[in-house]
Hints:
UDP-galactose 4-epimerase, domain 1, three-stranded mixed sheet
Amino acid sequence: MKKVLVTGGAGFIGSHLVNMLASKGYNILVVDDLSTGSEENINADATFYNEPVESMPPERLEGVEIVFHLASISGETISFHAPKACFLKNVQAGYNLIRCCIESKVKKVVFTSSMAVYGSRQTPPFTEEMACDPTDPYGVSKQTIEYLLRSYGELGFFNWNILRLHNVYGPGMSLKDPFRGVVGIFVSQALQRKPVSIYGDGDQTRSFTFITDIIPSLVRAGLDDNISAQILNLGSDTPKSLRSVAKAVFSALKEKENIRYFPDRLGEAKYAYPTSKRAREKFGDFIKTEFDLGIRSTIEWGKTRDDYLFDSNKLNFDLELGQSPIPWLGN
Length: 331
């Protein structure tokens, strides 16, 4: 069986990916420094290395044929406050991974990028043909890795695919992370019987994608030799407003809505959602889960957890830019 490496394999999306690869019998290595992932997410059949990708040695990839690169510090707004961590964990890590792949003669690299590469000046729906125009450090870091990956891939060092993910949610997502994952933040606040925090008027629209809908596509992007040198949006074509997401959370809990509004967050796009036409041409119709059903499934899973108090010590802010959003302060 092929030897596969998953960076960030102890994280939300990475652990789901590892579980599917393990079910197919692949020999899996996981590299994760547990800065945002969790040890409980590590598949028992995977070989785990607790180390940062930015200092991973080339010999770690000995015999590896396929690399799925998911390890990342994510979040557009938080990246304005913590650009050092963003560039270390994204750009430096991405560069080191590519170097290791070249030295170890890896055959294929799949990189999970982000809608943040499109920025806030583009008019959605975002298409892969649009020029990248990131407007925050996180988007810049993701775009930089995309360019590095394509540059070395087009020189013939490895095959590659870039998948731009859009607000993935579902069971297994972190409910303790106050910096990213609006569904996780809303669910955590609601389970704590606290008001859900919305910045702006709540009319901002995003694409929300249920976790089990995209994992098969991620796997195929790595294992299918006929899918290569592709940049693909992976996300729902049906955008939802943040207010409707909050309402869906309270509906699933069968509780009265409790929403608190705050001024707009720094640098936040008003409308950001893709079209996934190109991905559907490659993978088929991968969106299977109705949004309300996905939210109910996430809520039911969340009720089984006892670790949904925010952990605001995950990142140190490099830049003090004024009042931080309420969840970041642990309230």
